[in-house]
Design brief:
flat, 27% strand, Alpha-Beta Plaits, alpha+beta, four-stranded antiparallel β-sheet
């Protein structure tokens, strides 16, 4: 069953260089799992509550595959740069069949 990694940036970007390094490193990941990007910082229209500063949504085949991609050592090294760039929230949601 499909799973979605959702990352929201909860504040304006604090360190553009750190985000650029995160993006560079994630493009070079040797992990054989490749997420399918569905949303990369598209327009956000708030309907209920405050909207995040930005949103990324990537699709994976299963929750387990999404979690293994996130836990991969190379991604964890890259993640340090995203966390330095701004406050984020990330989670995996299982889709419906």
């Amino acid at each position: 069953m499909a799973a979605y990694l959702i990352v929201t940036r909860e504040e304006p970007l604090q360190d553009a260089e750190a985000l650029a390094e995160y993006q560079r490193r994630t493009r070079l990941l040797s992990n054989t799992v490749k997420p399918l990007p569905l949303v990369i910082y598209g327009q956000v229209v708030p309907l209920e509550g405050e909207a995040p500063d930005g949103t990324i949504i990537c699709q994976f085949d299963t929750v387990e595959i999404a979690k293994s991609w996130y836990d991969h050592p190379e991604y964890q090294e890259a993640l340090n740069f995203r966390l330095k760039a701004a406050k984020h929230r990330a989670y995996i949601v299982e889709g419906i069949s």
